[in-house]
Amino acid sequence: MKIFLIGMPYSGKSTLGHQLANELSLPFVDQDREIEMRESKSISEIFSQAGEGHFRIIESTVLKEWAASSESFVMGTGGGAPCFHHGIDIINQAGISIFLDVPTEELVSRVGSKSDRPLLNTSDQEALIEKLTRLYSNRVEIYRKARLILTNPTLPVVLNALKIRN
Q: Of 53, 79, 132, 134, which cross-links 9 as Cys (Cβ 3.0–4.6 Å)?
């Protein structure tokens, strides 16, 4: 079983992913951490030194490798992973995709005054809201290709949705 959590930065992919993996006795894979280990750099360093294009290629490579593996897992994907290099198709062919659809207002409160995400790096609250709104608008059509779409998800909601699907 391969479960891919997709959605905006700060939508809970890592937090919920760890909980879900634990509940299902599966390993949790954080795609961003996989990229950082492979590149021996933080996501921010990759963006600033090699650019977003390079990052997206590495992101796609990591996604393809995990999708092709015989291992079962829960993966918290990077926010853009489904949106570049046919990521959503790779995800949907390999396993179960779950879109964690969280309102922008909630994302803003989770970001707080700091962000380690290069696309959201701003201290101006209005600029952050604008960036998140624009990013969501650009990505939501692809996110909605997920097998399951959950609004404001919690672990019990995800587990219930998975039971209903199986």
A: 79
